Amino acid sequence: MSNRYHEYSKSNSANRYHEYSLQSGGKSNRYYEYNKSTSGSCKKLKEMLTKSDNQVCADCDAPDPKWASANIGVFLCLKCCSVHRNLGTEISKVLSVTLDEWSEEDIDSMVEVGGNSSANAIYEAYFPDGISKPKPNASIEERTKFIRSKYELQEFLKPSLRMVSSKSSFRSCVSSDFSSFTVQPHQKNAADASRSIGTLKVKVVRGIDLAIRDFRSSDPYVILMLGQQKVQTSVIQSNLNPVWNEELKLPIPQRFGALKLQVFDHDTFSADDIMGEAEIDLQPFMAAATAFGDDEMSFDMQVGKWLKSSDNALIKDSTINIVGGKIKQEIHLKLQNVECGELELELEWIPLQ
């Protein structure tokens, strides 16, 4: 055997081995590109799971859900997941958070909905008398009845929001519901973005145990900000537990974010000192306002909830109710970036005439 034959055989064998390894387990460029895309999508899903409302089952509040309905946009426990499977994929497409491969479309659907709180703000808008969510130890019969009523029959939605076909997803339900104030990708015009869709009336009720910024007390006032808009309360002299009961109004534009607030101590001869701040997520309130705010309701009921979590400044869950025909939300906040202080407010929706 000549040296030339030996070199050719060695080279050819190496090439064949290289081709085989790529086909049967070697990592090609295409593999790495796919893996990079998949890992990015999984990261979005894991980020959603860090939110406190997504750390319990959307239907029974059991902890640590490992399943999800991709088209509805909620995280589920194993027991509720089995009921969802029986609804059929046209109503609920069930996937394992840890075991199944998720498509970009499925993950985008979950992200678009926002998770348990956003979905439940629609699907659990109000419960008729005698109806409540099942507990984590509920029977399969109780779960089945509740879940079918919630998603398939849509008995807890406002009737006018019920889908023409129960085979549609949550996204199709809210697409028209939120279209009046959700920004579409093609909306670039500043005038369109700032057009008012209604008015937010904020009643600044009182402050509790506010921080001392003067010798023994403070002269507090509150500033509210929504986008470029800013309004403020009057100054109350020398009071760490001030009662304002002042009503301030802010037009809500089509493109809106969180309602931001700051508490300051008024100083005559120097810059005012900050006494804490907080943000209010308006999405749950606006979901309820859009669903119920234009109707004349003759009875009072709960129509939504903003849940206390480590991601917000709530001291307790904040419920959204119809009171005397008006959409209202009572909010109790712990002021942030300050040693102490709380603030109580009430939101009210004023629709366009």
UniProtKB/TrEMBL annotation:
Which keywords does UniProt give here? Calcium, GTPase activation, Metal-binding, Zinc, Zinc-finger
Record-annotated Arf-GAP domain positions: 43-156
CDD domains according to UniProt: ArfGap (cd08204), C2_ArfGAP (cd04038)
Entry GO MF terms: GTPase activator activity; phospholipid binding; zinc ion binding
Q: Which Gene3D superfamilies match?
A: Arf GTPase activating protein, C2 domain
Q: Where is the C2 domain?
A: 179-295
Instruction: Tell me the protein's name.
Output: Uncharacterized protein
Native species of this protein? Vanilla planifolia
